[in-house]
Specification:
heterodimer, A: alpha/beta, Rossmann fold, Hypothetical Protein Yjia, Chain: A,domain 2, 7-stranded parallel beta sheet, 6-stranded antiparallel beta sheet, globular, B: mainly beta, Methylamine Dehydrogenase, Chain H, 4-stranded antiparallel beta sheet
Chain lengths: 469, 348
Amino acid sequence: MTACALESNCFEPSTEQLVADDRVPVTVLTGFLGSGKTTLLNRILSEQHGQRIAVVENEYGEIGIDHELVVQTDEEIFEMNNGCICCTVRGDLIRILGRLMRRRHRFDRIIIETTGMADPGPVAQTFFMDEEMKAKLRLDAIVTMVDAKHVLTHLGDSDECRAQIASADILLLNKSDLVSATELAALEGRVRGMNRLARVHDTVHGRVDLETVLDVRAFDLEARAAESPAFMQEELPFEWAGLYDLQPGHYLLELGPGPDPTIDLVLGGPRLEHDVEFTEWKRRSILLYSGEAHLLNDAPDTVASPGETLYRLPVDDARGARLTIAIAQPGRYVLLTQHLPEEFDLRLLDGAGTEQAAEQEHRYASPHEHDDSVASVGLRQPGELDAERFEQWIAQLLRTRGPDLFRTKGVLALKDKPNRFVFQGVHMLFDGSDGKPWAADDERGSQLVFIGRNLDRAALDAGLRWCSV
Amino acid sequence: MVLGLAAPVPAVSRERWQSSLPEAVTALSWSSGSDGALWSAGADGWIRRHGADGSEQCAWEAHDGGITRLCPRPGSDYLATAGEDGRVVLWDAAGALRETLAEESCWVEHLAWTPDGRILAAAAGRSIQLWRDGESLGVWYDARRSVLALAWAPDGRRLATAANKGLHLWQVGGQAPVQLLDFPGAPVALGWRPDGKALAVGTQDGFLQVWRQAAAAGARGKRAPAPLTMRGYPAKVSCLDWHPTRSCVATAGGPDVVLWDIPAAGEGKPTPLRLHRSPVTALAFAPDGATLVSAGRGGRVCLWSDGGALLQTLALDAEVTAAVWSPDAGMLALGCTDGRLRVQQMNA
């Protein structure tokens, strides 16, 4: 099953776990000091869910936890002698969980709370590298708690904070009541840009449905295999689309100062009442966004009109920006923007100065990387892949870039295989198994997402294309 | 003309008694007297004394949470225990508390008497504490690393402790380790050869390392000799035990048991014993050196001759957590995670 890319060249589908998995699920809870991990933990423990939970808590816990089965631990990293720096494990967890498992009838699941400064990598690897841990326990998910108010500072200066976000299956933006909707949206965009695989939720005082954080089965390839292959969010060059019903005349687009000195936008329409038409415009806009932008000057008489143009609007950091839009025919139009409207306080006003509400809006994962060294790269490759080439490429990639790759997930179409191939990795460790069979009318294609540090999209894309049949 | 029936090979052991405890057995130890009594420790925090026929002679709750170690004091009738509640406690044979030696905030995972029973060593987290007759001899502390294993040299004067990437040798009375043996891995098992001149370590990433004392040690040669390194285990080397008289160490990593003959110089010679299908969790030579027991996660117990010939197998229902021989090598006690306790009597 799981193998280290340093030691193994075999890329065989897993045949293990054919019997019912009776291993105890483990949730890893990470987050910076003050993010609210202990509040969430206490909430989980105090809820009437009928589950008995054993807690492994780091010895520098924020506040004590009042619970029957709590073990304190002193985080200790063991490096492996094979020279693979990714094969580090948490020695303290191996000892403590090994002993705890002698009493396994006393609990149904385990939650491990890490210190604020911990890298979740070694914790996750412990459950794949140590034979005993792998046999008795099942890593369910890495849940990362983020303090919505202070995380931007940490993101700037802490590798651990970036690692925690990049490793997460579930990201909880906690204390979301302490920031404005705009700030929250910007934060959400940013963390999604770093980790496109995680499910992101806003929380206040750690209030979250338990099913959101427990029994996620994020590392369970069988669960992944049963899912639809479109597990990854579309990656689009714009973050927002607003659909408006407009009448002939002049409208004014008003923006406040925002995080960037310009914003790129496309105006489409009319006749976008139906989804099909909107989807078609979305597709055309992707092409427009990849082309040359028409730079608008910020003179007050600048007028833009709907059409196949990518406008780049300068946004003054004091005055913001204003753009007149001329509409000739009545109907439904779309405004596609590079950033979320909250980030620039974007408003559309009619001739009388009345704000227009969007009939519909769509939000997309952040495409731009905010200069974060940690980011997600999603790749799609139509058609089939050559299994041997893919194995060669991915093993080499993990071997050389493993330390920088927090998570890797993929659903692949391998040549002559009746089933999808589901694939996941944590640093240098990887694991794959057969997924859902391809139906006759399915369009075969592969998707891969890498979450890592300093990823080179062009190189990754070229690598995947090289594997193509 | 008559089809000769081979005489059935007599089993080397038979069941003497068995018992079922409410929770997992975490440690077993034979009483140091000649009464054939057995002490058991449980994940429920209880200590029990079982008579020669298996009858429960006394029982008491010794720790809040599981008991990690149970060590009768050599040459006396009382015992020391360590637990997940952070306590190190001395008890008399009837279960009366003699003294609480330590109350730590973390699990006390290691506990050992010197062979003469004079000094007790306990390790919790990063600290090692020593007591003589209930008096503290001090605390040794490694600021960076947890103690992963400890073992007294047979002379009772040196203590070996294992931490990530190295072993420390301490001298009773000293404040700092007298020798440091560096190596790249994380130790999980540790054992002195009974002559005190070699030390074996099993590691998390599946190798075995043996240090031998140089035959002609230079005047004050405190430089660590180059160790022998033995690889090829499919998993961490979690069990090891030296033969009582020969230079042979039994080891287990994953389902593989390997006997290593360790010469005074040069490479070791392996004898692999592959019969377990699940990882081996307990391994012990009988005190007379005639028999080796190996027992695994799946409940299979194998008895081997000291040369590695299979003598008998037993099947228990759950992971074996303890396999201990009586001092006269006549009895073997086995404890499991399902609370099963079984004593085998060796046939003469």
